[in-house]
Amino acid sequence: MTTRSSTPPPQSQLGQQLAADIPGLEVQDLPEILDAHSRDHTEDLQFLPDLVALPNSTSQVSALLAWANERRIPVTAAGAWTGLSGGALAVKGGISLSTKRLNRMVKIDELNHQLVVQPGVIVQEMQEAVQAKGLFYAVDPASRGTCTIGGNLAENSGGPRAVKYGVTKDWVLNLEVVLADGTVIQTGANTLKNSTGYNTTQLMVGSEGTLGIITEATLKLLPWPKFNALLLVPFADPKDACRAVAGIFQDGNQPSALEFMERAAIELAMDFTGDRQLPLSSDTAAHLLIEVDGFREEDLMPQLERLAQTLERFDAGEPLMAMDSAGKDQLWNLRRKVGEAVKAHSTYKEEDTVVPRGHLPELLAAIKQTGSEYGFESICYGHAGDGNLHVNILKGELSIAVWEQTLPEAIRAIFQKVVSLGGTISGEHGIGWVQKPYMDIRFSPAELALQRRIKDAFDPVHTLNPDKILP
Amino acid sequence: MTTRSSTPPPQSQLGQQLAADIPGLEVQDLPEILDAHSRDHTEDLQFLPDLVALPNSTSQVSALLAWANERRIPVTAAGAWTGLSGGALAVKGGISLSTKRLNRMVKIDELNHQLVVQPGVIVQEMQEAVQAKGLFYAVDPASRGTCTIGGNLAENSGGPRAVKYGVTKDWVLNLEVVLADGTVIQTGANTLKNSTGYNTTQLMVGSEGTLGIITEATLKLLPWPKFNALLLVPFADPKDACRAVAGIFQDGNQPSALEFMERAAIELAMDFTGDRQLPLSSDTAAHLLIEVDGFREEDLMPQLERLAQTLERFDAGEPLMAMDSAGKDQLWNLRRKVGEAVKAHSTYKEEDTVVPRGHLPELLAAIKQTGSEYGFESICYGHAGDGNLHVNILKGELSIAVWEQTLPEAIRAIFQKVVSLGGTISGEHGIGWVQKPYMDIRFSPAELALQRRIKDAFDPVHTLNPDKILP
Fold first, then answer.
1. Which domains does chain A have, with CATH numbers?
2. CA atoms within 13 A of residue B136's CA, in its CB half-sphere
């Protein structure tokens, strides 16, 4: 009756008790397995859970949460460990709840343009499955080939296409959630409109597994805009690239992606991928990568022409245009690999800043100014159309003392600037563990107290992903 | 220093005390004023407040809420009294907080495509102000000429264009909110992306003034799609019209409005407006009103051609096309007046049902079937593209006993069908007072208990719009 993998049964007393109490639930605690469930893609973090549990159904999740809640044992959900804020790390030990076996695409509803999925489904697999039916799920974080929809829901992930199509939250109609005590609820309805009570759907999205565990999501889909074109636009001055971003929208363009990369970002990606075919003129200091899309091939050219007019106003260089899939894949691959390339190049810290997009020039200047003051180099890139700039601060030659003690001050200075521009301290990576110390920059004590009361309303004894988000 | 209207000072002891404690706050309690603040557009409801307060600043709202909270006096916010669920009615008496004097458009931010408004601004005035700058706020409830953005935020209002552009919640970036104890908070940031703590912005939208009072909203804007065309499409069988709705999207069309009207709806609107120019063939039983839009005039024709192909598949009659503004205004005016026309025709109850749009045919059949069983006539119309059907149940010849005692059973039967189809009991009107008895159809006891804990986290002593939403 119980299907188990070939992993040996749990060794610890706690693991044996859990396995005995919930027959059929896969429980693991080999040291190498705990180690494999102790790190995500955030720099420099490791926290070992005591156990790993791999439920394969909502009822197993429910039984597990009730069991843990009674015993005050922390439960932290994890998908594919691609997170960038430590959200999936069991910082208080306890149980790492892997969604690996909750990986069914339950239903593609072609009549209503909806998709029902379990949290462990890989985002790209989900996208390809609906595209095969002419449908479109737009949210595509750089990690989409490995990250799970559960992780995207937990962190409210974005990605390049968010600029036209919105972030994860904008695609969610309804969630099945297991609360801390094991109760199973639905948050919404499978409808495009809903004015029926409090919006607990949107409260769950981005809550990083601290309010409940999502076991099923109903997502909306759109018809697939099959056609697109991609432009890589060089600028001699990064400030001009940043200024152009707001200008593009002011001129009525609606790009389906609008990415910014400093020269160092694309250079590192070229080194990392070994793809050196791209012409990179010596006077290029930054690029915008701009995509337009449409339902018909003839929808593209008018958009490209309008874009060209805007770009001229901002001193752009000659764009490189990719219309065929090989060319587009090459450009997107370079963009997607920037994160890994920076990681391979140096110890770094990444801050996920976001401001109203018209303030990008001021943000970039402030980051560089802070870098000069504190003596660090930074590489900036990201989803400029959303005002979302990933700031990679490189350790380089900095001493460990400066890196660990002085740098948080510099980050604080950057975040203070972000907030003064109307922005916030995470656009799409979440707060998790690493941004928690900075929450007071964005939120007043009263605002943080309100968030704590919400946490208490969902999880009064704090067993769900304890010690995350709220300082 | 204090600017008062010519209304006399409050007569009641409570009113005099409030006016004395918060100098500058306009407080009214003349019987005719209390009467004018006792009804909205929901059928058959009247609840008198004890006082009307008209704060003109966030700090006055804050002082008022702190004052009322200390004294356990209910405070119910109200905009323009166009609500359709009784959300603004002071069902427990106390203070009716009018947003009439919080009516400033604080800022149109053309650089960032954002708008900052106070809650008392009229939606249509706001739309026209941003359109004058080439920008677009899409949400346009039928009452947009009189309703306020505060009311739209409170009820998460929709309207025809929601089918392409989303409902009120999809346009909100950040809110300034006064909590029950007078604390002023911000919920979000002025950014398109935000993964920074719990989404209290979306929790406030649609919460009908039960969690806090919104005193300022930052809304996003889009470039204005200036061009559109409108089709009125007749069907001999309403079921074909309903089936066509999902078909339109399955064929890849993206209408900017897709409305359904039974024949009786358009006939009543013609009677009510006196506009009888529309050809109405004897074999027409229902219409779809379909709008397409674009940034260029030449964007329209390909959309109309594609639509025509779909409509043929569903046995549509010859469409009437309006391309000039007089023709479009005429059609929209008839559609917008349906609600008032029904009201003028008969005592009625309106239910704001919503289902996944592919299930509209089953919903319409179930409504008519329930009508036969319980002996009532109904007129159905609404935002079919969103699966949102307004069901107007006519009193007609029904006895008061049947109307008051048997009808709730029939409504319950309809809502049960709605929920079994994946739908919910309010698409855009909110729960307020009148739908509260049906909340148990959509939500389990555990789900309702969770919503109650959220209410308690925001408003522990229940002074904000008490006795609404939750049964």
1. 13-98 (3.30.43.10), 105-223 (3.30.465.10), 227-339 (3.30.70.2190), 346-431 (3.30.70.2740)
2. 16
Tokens of B56: 């003109």
How distant is the Cα of A148 from the closest Cα of chain B, in angstroms?
17
| A141 dihedral zone (left: phi>0; alpha: psi -120 to 50; beta) | beta
B23 class by beta-carbon count within 10 Å (0-12 exposed, 13-18 middle, 19+ buried) = exposed
- ipTM of this model? 0.96
- Is residue A251 within 8 A of residue A306, CB to CB? The reply is yes
CB contacts, 8 Å: A185 with chain B: 444, 446-447, 450
In chain B, what is the straight-line distance between the N-terminal and C-terminal CA atoms, in Å? 44
Q: For residue range A383-419, what is the model confidence (pLDDT) as tens digits?
A: 999 999 999 999 999 999 999 999 999 999 999 999 9
Using the Cβ of B445 and the Cβ atoms of chain A, whether some distance falls under 8 Å is answered with: no
In a 10 Å sphere around its CB, with 0-12 CB exposed, 13-18 middle and 19+ buried, how is residue A196 labelled?
A: buried
Q: Which residues of chain A have pLDDT under 50?
A: 1-4
Cβ-based neighbours of B184, under 8 Å, separated by 6 or more: A446, B58, B62, B176, B177, B178, B215
Tell me the residues of chain B between 216 and 255 that have a Cβ less than 8 Å away from chain A: 222-223, 246, 249-250, 252, 254
Coil, strand, or helix at residue A61?
A: helix
Burial A287-318 (b: 16+ CB within 10 A, else e): bbbbbbbbbeeebbeebbebbeebbeebebbe
Contact B203 A198 (CB under 8 A): yes
Is residue B268 less than 8 Å (CB to CB) from chain A?
Answer: no
Taking only the tens place, the pLDDT of each residue in B38-86 is 999 997 899 999 999 999 999 999 999 999 999 999 999 999 999 999 9
